[in-house]
Amino acid sequence: MKRLCFYILFLSCLFACLGIAYSAQKEIFFTLKEGEKFVDKLQQADISREEALLVAHKIRKYIDLNQLPVGFSFSVIYNERGVPVELVIPKDVGVEFVVDLRRVKVEKRKLKVKVYEKEFFGVLEPGDSVFYSIYNKTKDPRVAYQFVSIFKYRIDFHTWTRPGDYYAFICRVIEDERGRKKFDRILVAKYVGKKVKAEAALYKGVYYDRKGRSLVGYFLASPFSESFLRAPLRYKRISSRFSYHRLHPILGIVRPHLGVDYAAPEGTPVRVVADGRVIWKGWIGGFGRTVKVRHKGGIITQYAHLRRYARGIRVGKWVKKGQVIGYVGHTGLATGPHLDFRIKVKGRFVNPLRFLAKYSRRYYVFKRKRRPLSPEGRAFIASLFDKIDKVIARYQSMLASQS
Ligand SMILES: [Zn+2]
After folding, report:
1. How far apart are CA 48 and CA 46, in angstroms?
2. Pairing state between β 254-257 and 243-247
3. Which residues are CB-contacts of 245 (< 8 A; sequence separation ≥ 6)?
4. Which domains does the chain have, with CATH numbers?
């Protein structure tokens, strides 16, 4: 019966639009303007003030009619004699309240909904924030907020974004038979920037990156956290670790070894582990030919037993992460060719292996509890990432053909 009513309504609207006189029920829509009250608006719809107050009272427990926003829209259905018979007040997408005006009875009505996916792609303009850019496209702050929160452990959207960065996401949309729609959850999202890149796909309520790691379990320390190399050279093995009491292989006495020895063939290039400035180049007793580099944050790295220095290395010179500063040798007190590598942080030697493991890593793990993604889960997110990659490729070729 309700379905039938709806069809009659629909047809009557259609005929009204077509300008055909049709004498059955008619539905007229009303929209609240600035400063207008719902009850007053009902009077415009030929519903008396007494009746309007009664309706407001009846529907109070579902909707507060005094709190309706500007732009809120509802409809009144009139019979063939032009008498208002029903009042239709939408609550949410797919839900509306129908007031039978003759009996003043309120009924909650569920509408049929369809669910589909919608794609978005955007490029940041100078002065744009990600939030603003997405809001501009979707006109929905909740979607923009969702996008930003998905990546909150991976991207600092306040400082790491740059004009020209781009993003894409696919969002589920729910639309009811009256054409009201809302954005549901973002299914897959990607951000590609000059400083940072991140992606996420939704599976069973959790967002994962392409490797199947939960976005909540891992976070990006900073786009600069990869500021150190994992090791200053390609080594064969670690011949001696950081220790406070090691039996010295040549001196035969127990002495602290406050560095790490990487065994490697003579002449293997030695690279500086981070950007910095050379503060020492020269012979130091048992260390032989040695280079010291000062980095940001009061960090000094030291490279010893070098056979020779790289060309152009001198005190005061700025060096880049990965730049060759010398070559493996066995100058000073050394049993064979190796690099003695040390790190001092604010005047204290630290374990170089532990330090580099930490600061060469892109992600910090702060929660290991979540179990790895199942094979089905992996396949599922892989298909979502595939989808978003295609969206990006399509938009990019569109942009390329425009310019
Ligand atoms: Zn050593």
Report:
1. 6
2. antiparallel
3. 254, 255, 256
4. 2-110 (3.10.450.350), 114-226+372-402 (3.10.450.350), 237-359 (2.70.70.10)
- pTM (whole model) above 0.85: no
Q: Name which of 269, 90, 252 is nearest 180 in CA terms.
A: 90
**What DSSP designation does 211 have?**
T
**Distance from the CA of 224 to the center of ligand 1, in angstroms?**
29
Q: How close is the Cα of 260 to the center of ligand 1, in Å? A: 6
DSSP 3-state percent helix, strand, coil across the chain (nearest 5)? 25, 35, 40
pLDDT in tens, 292-319: 999 988 899 999 999 999 999 999 999 9
Q: What percent of the chain has pLDDT over 90?
A: 55
The Å distance, Cα 312 to ligand 1 centre, comes to 25
Report which DSSP code applies to 135: H
CA of 266 to the centre of ligand 1 (A): 15
Residue 313 CA to ligand 1 centre (angstroms): 22
Residue 245 to residues 214, 237, 355, 375, Cα–Cα distance (Å): 41, 20, 20, 48
